[in-house]
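>> received
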Amino acid sequence: MKHIFLIFTLSLALAGCADQMEKLRQVYTVATTTTVPAEVVRPAANTFDILKGTAANFASFCIKNNFAPVGCDVDTRRKISTFVREGTKARVELRASLATGQPALSTVYNLLVAAVTGLQGTPAATFTGG
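>> returned
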């Protein structure tokens, strides 16, 4: 009787694993095949380019003023740097899509949008050259 119960329990567990594996496969398929039109990618890429330039100017401003102004603290600069680095990686991957007008992978586009959103939440986004 113990063996029957053990076999039954094990078969239920394996059935659950098969369901989970199928769900994982579906998520992977969607993530690697879903695309975004180039017309949607272009504005996000341009926005990132502008914010990246502003972030560089903000970094120069902080250095010039010995990191004293508001927003020049280590944590804020680290966040800005991370958003710029991640956005730049995504932007480079999207070059072919922008050059050819072909759709881009949504996962890469989402990384770019996350970088834009992150940068917009930092002092670098509103920096005017103070």
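>> The chain has two domains: 1-33, 35-126.
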